[in-house]
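Predict the holo structure. Ligand: P71.
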Amino acid sequence: MKFPAEPFRIKVVEPIKTTTKEERERLIKEAGYNLFLIPAESIFIDLLTDSGTSAMSDNQWAGLMMGDESYAGSKNYYHFKETVQHIFGFKHVIPTHQGRVAENLLFSTILKEGDVVPNNIHFDTTRANVEHNKAKALDCVIDEGLDPESEYPFKGNLDIKKLENAIESYGKERIPLIMITITNNSGGGQPVSMENIRSVSALAKKHGIPLFFDACRFAENCYFIKQREKGYENKSILEIARELFSYGDGCTMSAKKDGLVNIGGFLSLNDSKLSEEITNMLILIEGFSTYGGLAGRDLEAISRGLREVLQEDYLEFRINQTRYLGEMLMEQGIPIVKPVGGHAVYIDAKRFLPHIPQSQFPGQALIVALYTEAGVRAVEIGSLMFAHNDQESGKTVYPELELVRLAIPRRVYTSMHMQYVAESITELYRNRNHLKGLTIEYAPDFLRHFTARLKPLEN
Ligand code: P71
């Protein structure tokens, strides 16, 4: 494929440090073989997440200087609200300092014990927030979405049959909302089609169930719709986004992704009574309704970021850079989730390391080796993140997908950095038979991957 050239030039640089293999071996041991616990300074290329790691534009940095830090009614709040309404089209806009707070506010207000929330695939914080409110997080993605080899263009789609069955078996009274995650992060950064969103919306309306989007990567999803769905090839990203959100009742958003900022998020919705209730909660835990835990300047940076992310030359480069990394790996026969997603390349760890069972965390073994060998940090989205004890049987349930995600920060790394990453993984793939599994030494009750400590198995 064509080498993707960056549609920007570099005005400020941040040096990155190189470390020796011996230093990295010491650091990873000290960190309990958990990449979240390594000082970021000791990482050469950091693909842990695309969240909050974007490089802001000169326009966004200029916006920071326009910060109005009034406690109430800052002018940046009005700009922020106007921008969100312009793109997303919902009536109320509630700023939060990041996405999971929007989730917490929404779920703690509308969920009660025994409720069920269907989603294509809940991301970890979403699942944890649903479960923390004693409700069930039900994944209803289409079967293709669980098959790393399937080339289906919209692998993030919800399975309408699974959704209908859920409504029938649990009853609509126990389903306070349906969610759609765009793009589907836990399933490989795969998009959801407009047609699927329309069908889910019709079903939700028929049963009087509100539909919410987890909108973190909405612009990337809209770009895929433009590329892959008939009838959208001549529409602008803004037009596609507006149509998409018109089918729902609200959204949660982590602006740390497609908001192109380092911190921020929001909740946006049409229901005035619900919005009032959530706003009162916001004031209790985040801050006043015109800043929600953010500085005025942060709100300005989000407003500008949300407009920039809709630009097609940016999105074209973004999606192509991710695909470029994926294709370099595929050329070497390395098993990845196909087609390549929007914000990340996902390695299929089950097939990369077939000799390590899921109970020994093959995904984690892979990211530990990638850091130790090359100073590259990736994240495990597999059994360390998602295995859990089934409440009924008491048995450990392993996730269907055992993935290692190489998430690409927006506008941060060049395509040459991607080559370095591809070469490092290729080298690891050649020596994969030497890699060993891990066992847990300590783990908290929920969201354990952030703080767990592990150790390598000897045999
Ligand atoms: C990502 C993250 C952030 C993260 C999470 C866990 C480990 C490492 C990094 C956050 C999401 C997300 C979706 C679909 C809600 C959130 C929470 N993703 N929904 O992918 O992807 O947003 O981080 O602003 O609270 O690395 P928040």
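The CA atoms of residues 108 and 133 lie 6 Å apart. The mean pLDDT is 96.
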